[in-house]
Amino acid sequence: MTGLQLAVLRILGERPALPLAALRKTLVMHPATLGQSIDELRQLGLCTVERDSRDKRARVVAITEKGTELMVRAPVAGP
User: Fold this and answer.
1) Counting Cβ atoms within 10 Å, is residue 12 exposed (0-12), middle (13-18) or buried (19+)?
2) Would the CA dihedral through 50, 30, 11, 23 be positive or negative?
3) Which residues contact 5 (CB under 8 A, 6 or more apart)?
4) What is the pTM of this model?
């Protein structure tokens, strides 16, 4: 688990679902870097990625129950 992945989960834990573009803006990350981290989180079952029902080009990221459980146990660190 990287610091970026923990940051993504913390942000997702504050909102039920977030467009990927908004997450990119919040973290000021290159799309490929963020995409790789989210793919790893998705493979671990910690988040889901689905097409936005209102805009089929956009994707919405949401934390899973497993991701929420991990956030409860993960220490808070950093600035």
Assistant:
1) buried
2) negative
3) 37, 40, 41, 46
4) 0.85
- In this prediction, residues 2-15 reach a mean pLDDT of 90
Which pLDDT score, from 0 to 100, does residue 78 have?
58
Give mean pLDDT, residues 65-79.
Answer: 82
Q: Which of 30, 29, 41 is nearest to 67 (CA)?
A: 41
Query: Quick check: 67 and 46 in contact, CB under 8 A?
Result: yes
In the DSSP assignment, the letter for residue 1 is: -
User: Is residue 58 packed enough to be buried (19+ CB in 10 Å), middle (13-18) or exposed (0-12)?
Assistant: middle
**Tokens of residue 33, six digits:** 């870097």
